[in-house]
């Protein structure tokens, strides 16, 4: 058995901000993917995945009992496949902010949800919000709380524009230019990040009035503008706004930035060769970069592992 592939995702803009109703933009990242599988001779990693699926199935059973009007799963079929050794065969790195649990949630929903909302139907706002709510409940098993956005992006495999918590829609993004100078890229921090502790730091910060005001007057303002710039292909203004987001992150989200990247983060702001921002919740995993000239950025960051995401 081998199920369909579900891809990783990158939240280009909106990290933490979408909790406070800033705009956000998430895109599929097809470099990594995962699928449900059953093998005759499962590896140690496959067996470990199978064990965690057992616990997840038990959680989903409880979810079905608690919220039957929201979602129903064929738990018997799921348990039967888990007993047969089913696991999630994934190349998506865990704790890297690219949606490893999101892809798994999407795969389980796709295969085992009863009366599921499919990608082929007319996805109006109500259906999208229902899917997001279901996925949020499902993914909470892994993170304590979840917006449901990662699984939604993986399930639809489309760029998603978040206008606010209650207003999301699939969107189009400008075509890539193979020979473009500008780029979005990832830096591998070589540290595994954990979502829950980072989100807890953010929620604690929100108790501070100064921090709340900064989120409202600065972070949301520049994030919303950057989303608009990207969608319109106005990359010159995009860099100006991304630089501001990068400065805010270094000033107000320092615990989420691995310490060894504090200097390199500042160097990007000072040199204008690149601007770094959090990829997901931070604390490790990938760091997202924007560069007006990717070759210059590569030279400045030659000591780090870079992955190209998008060229313009």
TrEMBL record:
Ranges for domain GHMP kinase N-terminal? 85-150
InterPro entries from the xrefs? Answer: GHMP_kinase_C_sf, GHMP_kinase_N_dom, HddA/FKP, Ribosomal_Su5_D2-typ_SF, Ribsml_uS5_D2-typ_fold_subgr
The record's listing under Pfam families reads: GHMP_kinases_N (PF00288)
Q: Which UniProt keywords apply?
A: ATP-binding, Kinase, Nucleotide-binding, Transferase
- Which terms does the record give in the GO molecular function aspect? ATP binding; kinase activity
Is-annotated flag, keyword Nucleotide-binding?
yes
Gene3D superfamilies per record: 3.30.230.10, GHMP kinase, C-terminal domain (3.30.70.890)
In terms of superkingdom, the source organism counts as: Bacteria
Is ATP-binding one of the keywords? yes
* Protein name, as recorded: Mevalonate kinase
UniProt organism field: Paenimyroides ummariense
Q: What is the lineage of its organism?
A: Bacteria, Pseudomonadati, Bacteroidota, Flavobacteriia, Flavobacteriales
